[in-house]
What does this fold into?
Amino acid sequence: MSEPTSEELRARLSELEAKQRRDGMAGFEISDMGGVSVYGLGGFPVTLYYEQWIRLLDKAPELRQFLEANKSKLKFKEQQNGQLKQGI
It folds into this structure.
């Protein structure tokens, strides 16, 4: 059996990355513009620059409190098995 070509390896890597995103696992990448993209949260990646991520992470406790306080007004996406995702 021969070694896979670089094209075959790239194709396999793309398959695995796509499968990881489909399985709902968040993944991280550095974008072409130097931002950090998070995949697996929805249909499109969430991309912010370093400073933006730091500001958002610094606000995590406040964001969690806001989400919990407004939970009754929020919509929840359904999981594949039809059950609603609970909380954060």
User: Anything to note?
Assistant: The beta strands are 27-30, 36-39, 46-48. The chain has one domain: 7-72. The first strand starts at residue 27 and ends at 30.
